[in-house]
Amino acid sequence: MDAKLEKEQSVKFASAPAADKPVIGVPCSLMDMPSGRMKVHGAAERYIEVLAKLYGCMPIQIPAIVDCINYDDLAARLDGLMLTGGRANVEPYHFGGTPFPPDEPIDPGRDAVVIGMIRACVAAEVPIFGSCRGIQEMNVALGGSLHYRVHMMDGKLDHRMPRGENIPREEIFKLRHGIEMEEGSSFAEMAGATEVMVNSLHGQAVDRLASDLEVTAISTDGIIEGVRLKNDTTFTVGVQWHAEVDPHGHQLSGRLYEEFVAAATKRSGSR
User: Fold this and answer.
1) CATH number for the domain including 119?
2) Alpha carbon of 232 to those of 122, 130, 235, 243, 247: distances in Å?
3) Could you tell me the pTM of the whole model?
4) What pLDDT does residue 165 have?
5) In the annotation, is 132 catalytic?
Protein backbone atom coordinates (compact mmCIF):
# COMPACT_ATOMS: atom_id res chain seq x y z
CA MET A 1 0.00 0.00 0.00
CA ASP A 2 1.18 3.54 -0.74
CA ALA A 3 2.53 4.85 2.61
CA LYS A 4 1.74 8.48 1.78
CA LEU A 5 -1.85 7.66 0.83
CA GLU A 6 -2.31 5.59 3.98
CA LYS A 7 -0.98 8.46 6.14
CA GLU A 8 -3.31 10.94 4.42
CA GLN A 9 -6.31 8.70 5.06
CA SER A 10 -5.30 8.28 8.70
CA VAL A 11 -5.11 12.05 9.20
CA LYS A 12 -8.41 12.56 7.38
CA PHE A 13 -10.35 10.26 9.69
CA ALA A 14 -8.49 10.98 12.95
CA SER A 15 -10.52 14.14 13.58
CA ALA A 16 -13.92 12.69 12.71
CA PRO A 17 -16.30 12.57 15.70
CA ALA A 18 -16.78 9.04 17.06
CA ALA A 19 -20.56 9.46 16.70
CA ASP A 20 -20.14 9.85 12.93
CA LYS A 21 -18.19 6.62 12.49
CA PRO A 22 -20.06 3.41 11.62
CA VAL A 23 -19.58 0.71 14.25
CA ILE A 24 -18.18 -2.49 12.73
CA GLY A 25 -18.17 -5.74 14.68
CA VAL A 26 -15.04 -7.86 14.16
CA PRO A 27 -15.36 -11.40 15.56
CA CYS A 28 -12.25 -12.70 17.34
CA SER A 29 -10.40 -15.97 17.21
CA LEU A 30 -9.35 -17.59 20.50
CA MET A 31 -5.59 -18.06 20.43
CA ASP A 32 -2.84 -19.33 22.74
CA MET A 33 -0.14 -16.90 23.81
CA PRO A 34 3.39 -18.08 22.95
CA SER A 35 4.08 -18.60 26.66
CA GLY A 36 1.18 -21.05 26.85
CA ARG A 37 0.02 -19.50 30.13
CA MET A 38 -3.08 -17.81 28.76
CA LYS A 39 -5.42 -17.46 25.79
CA VAL A 40 -6.38 -14.23 24.03
CA HIS A 41 -9.34 -13.15 21.93
CA GLY A 42 -8.08 -11.27 18.91
CA ALA A 43 -8.22 -10.43 15.20
CA ALA A 44 -5.37 -9.63 12.81
CA GLU A 45 -4.22 -6.03 13.15
CA ARG A 46 -4.55 -5.31 9.44
CA TYR A 47 -8.35 -5.70 9.47
CA ILE A 48 -8.61 -3.23 12.34
CA GLU A 49 -6.23 -0.75 10.75
CA VAL A 50 -8.00 -0.75 7.39
CA LEU A 51 -11.42 -0.20 8.95
CA ALA A 52 -10.27 2.47 11.41
CA LYS A 53 -7.51 4.33 9.59
CA LEU A 54 -8.39 4.00 5.93
CA TYR A 55 -12.19 3.98 6.00
CA GLY A 56 -13.11 5.91 9.13
CA CYS A 57 -14.97 3.17 10.99
CA MET A 58 -15.11 2.25 14.67
CA PRO A 59 -14.09 -1.44 14.89
CA ILE A 60 -15.40 -3.34 17.92
CA GLN A 61 -13.98 -6.79 18.58
CA ILE A 62 -16.46 -9.55 19.44
CA PRO A 63 -15.02 -12.23 21.75
CA ALA A 64 -15.32 -15.92 20.88
CA ILE A 65 -17.41 -16.75 23.96
CA VAL A 66 -19.91 -19.52 23.36
CA ASP A 67 -23.50 -18.98 24.59
CA CYS A 68 -22.71 -15.60 26.16
CA ILE A 69 -23.81 -13.27 23.36
CA ASN A 70 -27.33 -12.30 22.39
CA TYR A 71 -26.80 -12.24 18.64
CA ASP A 72 -29.97 -10.34 17.76
CA ASP A 73 -29.28 -7.67 20.38
CA LEU A 74 -25.67 -7.23 19.27
CA ALA A 75 -26.64 -7.10 15.58
CA ALA A 76 -29.07 -4.27 16.39
CA ARG A 77 -26.16 -2.28 17.84
CA LEU A 78 -23.85 -2.73 14.84
CA ASP A 79 -23.61 -0.93 11.51
CA GLY A 80 -21.58 -3.70 9.89
CA LEU A 81 -19.91 -7.07 10.46
CA MET A 82 -16.37 -7.75 9.19
CA LEU A 83 -15.49 -11.46 9.01
CA THR A 84 -11.73 -12.02 9.00
CA GLY A 85 -9.35 -14.81 8.15
CA GLY A 86 -8.13 -17.17 10.85
CA ARG A 87 -5.79 -20.09 11.46
CA ALA A 88 -8.50 -22.62 12.38
CA ASN A 89 -11.03 -23.92 9.86
CA VAL A 90 -14.79 -24.15 10.44
CA GLU A 91 -15.49 -27.55 12.01
CA PRO A 92 -17.26 -30.01 9.66
CA TYR A 93 -20.09 -30.92 12.05
CA HIS A 94 -21.63 -27.53 11.25
CA PHE A 95 -22.35 -28.74 7.70
CA GLY A 96 -22.45 -32.53 8.05
CA GLY A 97 -18.90 -33.05 6.83
CA THR A 98 -16.29 -35.68 7.69
CA PRO A 99 -14.65 -34.97 11.10
CA PHE A 100 -11.23 -33.34 11.12
CA PRO A 101 -8.13 -35.39 11.97
CA PRO A 102 -7.04 -35.02 15.62
CA ASP A 103 -4.21 -32.57 14.85
CA GLU A 104 -6.40 -30.07 12.94
CA PRO A 105 -6.56 -26.63 14.64
CA ILE A 106 -10.11 -25.76 15.75
CA ASP A 107 -11.83 -22.74 17.28
CA PRO A 108 -15.31 -23.81 18.43
CA GLY A 109 -15.97 -20.48 20.13
CA ARG A 110 -15.39 -18.50 16.97
CA ASP A 111 -17.42 -20.99 14.92
CA ALA A 112 -20.44 -20.63 17.19
CA VAL A 113 -20.27 -16.85 17.61
CA VAL A 114 -19.71 -16.07 13.93
CA ILE A 115 -22.42 -18.42 12.68
CA GLY A 116 -24.86 -16.88 15.16
CA MET A 117 -23.84 -13.33 14.23
CA ILE A 118 -24.11 -13.93 10.48
CA ARG A 119 -27.65 -15.25 10.81
CA ALA A 120 -28.67 -12.38 13.08
CA CYS A 121 -27.08 -9.75 10.81
CA VAL A 122 -28.70 -11.15 7.67
CA ALA A 123 -32.08 -11.09 9.42
CA ALA A 124 -31.52 -7.50 10.59
CA GLU A 125 -30.04 -6.37 7.22
CA VAL A 126 -26.71 -5.43 8.79
CA PRO A 127 -23.98 -5.15 6.11
CA ILE A 128 -21.50 -8.05 6.11
CA PHE A 129 -18.09 -8.34 4.45
CA GLY A 130 -16.30 -11.68 4.73
CA SER A 131 -12.66 -12.26 3.74
CA CYS A 132 -10.96 -15.68 3.40
CA ARG A 133 -12.37 -17.73 6.30
CA GLY A 134 -15.19 -15.18 6.28
CA ILE A 135 -16.67 -16.38 2.97
CA GLN A 136 -16.56 -19.94 4.30
CA GLU A 137 -18.34 -18.89 7.51
CA MET A 138 -21.04 -17.12 5.51
CA ASN A 139 -21.66 -20.19 3.37
CA VAL A 140 -21.86 -22.53 6.37
CA ALA A 141 -24.07 -20.18 8.41
CA LEU A 142 -26.56 -20.03 5.54
CA GLY A 143 -26.65 -23.78 4.92
CA GLY A 144 -23.74 -24.54 2.59
CA SER A 145 -20.74 -26.86 2.94
CA LEU A 146 -16.96 -26.71 2.48
CA HIS A 147 -14.20 -28.62 0.73
CA TYR A 148 -11.64 -29.71 3.33
CA ARG A 149 -8.44 -29.58 1.26
CA VAL A 150 -8.58 -27.87 -2.12
CA HIS A 151 -5.01 -28.84 -3.03
CA MET A 152 -5.94 -32.55 -2.80
CA MET A 153 -8.71 -32.22 -5.39
CA ASP A 154 -8.10 -33.19 -9.01
CA GLY A 155 -7.34 -30.27 -11.28
CA LYS A 156 -7.08 -27.67 -8.50
CA LEU A 157 -4.21 -25.35 -7.64
CA ASP A 158 -2.60 -25.26 -4.21
CA HIS A 159 -4.41 -22.27 -2.70
CA ARG A 160 -2.56 -22.41 0.62
CA MET A 161 -0.05 -19.83 1.79
CA PRO A 162 3.62 -20.58 0.95
CA ARG A 163 5.15 -23.16 3.30
CA GLY A 164 8.45 -22.68 5.10
CA GLU A 165 10.16 -20.38 7.59
CA ASN A 166 11.07 -16.71 7.28
CA ILE A 167 9.00 -16.12 4.16
CA PRO A 168 8.63 -12.36 3.50
CA ARG A 169 5.17 -10.84 3.90
CA GLU A 170 5.29 -9.70 0.28
CA GLU A 171 5.70 -13.30 -0.86
CA ILE A 172 2.89 -14.57 1.38
CA PHE A 173 0.35 -12.02 0.15
CA LYS A 174 1.42 -11.66 -3.47
CA LEU A 175 -1.14 -12.03 -6.26
CA ARG A 176 -1.11 -15.73 -7.16
CA HIS A 177 -4.01 -16.65 -9.43
CA GLY A 178 -6.81 -15.14 -11.45
CA ILE A 179 -10.52 -14.90 -10.73
CA GLU A 180 -13.23 -14.52 -13.36
CA MET A 181 -16.44 -12.51 -13.17
CA GLU A 182 -19.37 -12.27 -15.54
CA GLU A 183 -19.41 -9.23 -17.79
CA GLY A 184 -21.87 -6.65 -16.45
CA SER A 185 -21.87 -8.14 -12.93
CA SER A 186 -21.36 -5.96 -9.86
CA PHE A 187 -17.86 -7.38 -9.28
CA ALA A 188 -16.81 -6.84 -12.90
CA GLU A 189 -18.05 -3.26 -12.79
CA MET A 190 -16.16 -2.59 -9.56
CA ALA A 191 -12.99 -4.22 -10.92
CA GLY A 192 -13.25 -2.55 -14.33
CA ALA A 193 -12.49 -5.98 -15.83
CA THR A 194 -13.83 -9.52 -16.01
CA GLU A 195 -10.61 -11.08 -14.71
CA VAL A 196 -8.20 -9.92 -12.00
CA MET A 197 -5.40 -11.47 -9.94
CA VAL A 198 -5.81 -12.12 -6.21
CA ASN A 199 -3.78 -13.46 -3.29
CA SER A 200 -4.47 -16.94 -1.91
CA LEU A 201 -4.00 -18.27 1.65
CA HIS A 202 -6.65 -20.94 2.25
CA GLY A 203 -6.94 -24.70 2.53
CA GLN A 204 -10.72 -25.02 2.68
CA ALA A 205 -13.17 -23.50 0.19
CA VAL A 206 -16.87 -23.32 -0.62
CA ASP A 207 -18.28 -26.66 -1.81
CA ARG A 208 -22.10 -26.76 -1.86
CA LEU A 209 -23.26 -23.17 -2.15
CA ALA A 210 -25.89 -22.00 0.34
CA SER A 211 -29.23 -21.50 -1.42
CA ASP A 212 -29.45 -17.87 -0.28
CA LEU A 213 -26.11 -16.98 -1.90
CA GLU A 214 -25.09 -16.41 -5.51
CA VAL A 215 -21.62 -16.72 -7.03
CA THR A 216 -19.92 -13.49 -8.05
CA ALA A 217 -16.39 -14.70 -8.85
CA ILE A 218 -14.67 -18.02 -9.64
CA SER A 219 -10.95 -18.83 -9.73
CA THR A 220 -9.39 -19.99 -12.96
CA ASP A 221 -9.35 -23.55 -11.55
CA GLY A 222 -13.04 -23.47 -10.62
CA ILE A 223 -13.05 -22.52 -6.91
CA ILE A 224 -15.77 -20.13 -5.74
CA GLU A 225 -13.96 -16.88 -4.86
CA GLY A 226 -16.86 -14.47 -4.37
CA VAL A 227 -20.46 -14.67 -3.17
CA ARG A 228 -23.29 -12.28 -2.47
CA LEU A 229 -26.65 -12.64 -0.77
CA LYS A 230 -29.44 -13.04 -3.31
CA ASN A 231 -31.75 -10.02 -3.51
CA ASP A 232 -29.29 -8.19 -1.26
CA THR A 233 -30.88 -5.05 0.23
CA THR A 234 -27.61 -3.80 1.70
CA PHE A 235 -24.10 -5.29 1.31
CA THR A 236 -23.68 -8.97 2.16
CA VAL A 237 -20.56 -10.16 0.36
CA GLY A 238 -17.81 -12.71 0.89
CA VAL A 239 -14.50 -13.15 -0.95
CA GLN A 240 -11.95 -15.94 -0.65
CA TRP A 241 -8.88 -13.71 -0.90
CA HIS A 242 -7.51 -11.26 1.69
CA ALA A 243 -9.03 -8.00 0.52
CA GLU A 244 -7.60 -6.13 3.53
CA VAL A 245 -3.99 -6.53 2.36
CA ASP A 246 -3.87 -3.64 -0.13
CA PRO A 247 -7.31 -2.12 -0.80
CA HIS A 248 -5.82 1.02 -2.36
CA GLY A 249 -3.56 -0.98 -4.65
CA HIS A 250 -6.19 -3.50 -5.77
CA GLN A 251 -9.18 -1.89 -7.47
CA LEU A 252 -11.71 -4.63 -6.73
CA SER A 253 -10.72 -4.98 -3.06
CA GLY A 254 -10.81 -1.22 -2.61
CA ARG A 255 -14.23 -0.86 -4.22
CA LEU A 256 -15.60 -3.70 -2.08
CA TYR A 257 -14.44 -1.92 1.06
CA GLU A 258 -15.96 1.34 -0.18
CA GLU A 259 -19.33 -0.34 -0.83
CA PHE A 260 -19.26 -2.07 2.56
CA VAL A 261 -18.43 1.12 4.45
CA ALA A 262 -21.02 3.09 2.47
CA ALA A 263 -23.70 0.56 3.45
CA ALA A 264 -22.55 0.65 7.09
CA THR A 265 -22.55 4.46 7.08
CA LYS A 266 -26.08 4.50 5.68
CA ARG A 267 -27.22 2.15 8.44
CA SER A 268 -25.44 4.28 11.05
CA GLY A 269 -27.31 7.36 9.86
CA SER A 270 -30.69 5.65 10.10
CA ARG A 271 -29.90 3.85 13.35
Assistant:
1) 3.40.50.880
2) 9, 15, 6, 20, 23
3) 0.91
4) 77
5) yes
